[in-house]
User: Which sequence fits this backbone?
């Protein structure tokens, strides 16, 4: 079982819906990340949280809203998405943000119709 | 600017034959480099990392990579491919910006292994 759990595994939503992606890590890490993986494009870093504070917002549209209530949980709230937002959204965690490897979850496959 | 280029989008080998996945990087500083693997419907798993110690780095599942500064390369190799090695592989360079380390991912190489 992976130390980083993402739910749901698959999500289909309309452009007017509001939904949330959830990530939970069981590794005792203090940094968490959201990445977007689109077909034929490199992984894109979206957000970084360290000790529950956001340290990076990589020019992500406001229709994506992250939340990190504690060091074990990370959410990505979605609203009024576009079809081009369809992708695999990966959560990761690490111990510190200065060099330890990232541990990834299995991702949420999002389809926007 | 730092970047990473994976020279092959697809590589196909027969089971039991060697694997070579090529990666070139561009970095103004001595880089930290990684290889990650992603199996279908899974997240990314760290295979190995280079952080300015030994230039030949051994990873999990029999993979290894050699850092060659003169060639700005960090190719991934395995002597004998196994069917379970079929996956997508990402070469990654880490750069330090704004007080934290940001990972730059290559576009990925999809490895197919045939019986």
Assistant:
């Amino acid at each position: 079982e992976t130390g980083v759990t993402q739910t749901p595994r698959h999500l289909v939503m309309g452009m007017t819906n509001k939904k949330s992606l959830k990530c939970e890590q069981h590794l005792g890490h203090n940094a968490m990340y959201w990445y977007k993986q689109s077909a034929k494009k490199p992984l894109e870093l979206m957000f970084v949280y360290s000790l529950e504070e956001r340290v990076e917002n990589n020019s992500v549209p406001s229709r994506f809203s992250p939340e990190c209530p504690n060091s074990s949980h990370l959410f990505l709230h979605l609203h009024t998405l576009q079809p081009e937002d369809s992708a695999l959204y990966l959560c990761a965690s690490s111990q510190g943000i200065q060099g330890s490897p990232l541990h990834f979850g299995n991702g949420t496959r999002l389809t926007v119709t | 600017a730092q970047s990473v280029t994976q020279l092959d989008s697809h590589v196909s080998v027969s089971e039991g034959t060697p694997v070579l996945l090529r990666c070139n990087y561009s970095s103004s500083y001595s880089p930290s480099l990684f290889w990650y693997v992603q199996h279908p419907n899974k997240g990314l798993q760290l295979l190995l990392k280079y952080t300015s110690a030994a230039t030949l780095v051994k990873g999990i599942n029999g993979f290894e990579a050699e850092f060659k500064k003169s060639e700005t390369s960090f190719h991934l190799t395995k002597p004998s491919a196994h069917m379970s090695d079929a996956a997508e592989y990402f070469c990654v360079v880490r750069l330090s910006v704004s007080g934290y380390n940001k990972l730059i991912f290559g576009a990925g190489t999809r490895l197919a292994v045939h019986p």
In short: Chain B touches chain A through 24 residues (CB under 8 Å). The first strand of chain B starts at residue 3 and ends at 6. Chain B has no helices and twelve strands. The mean pLDDT of chain B is 90.
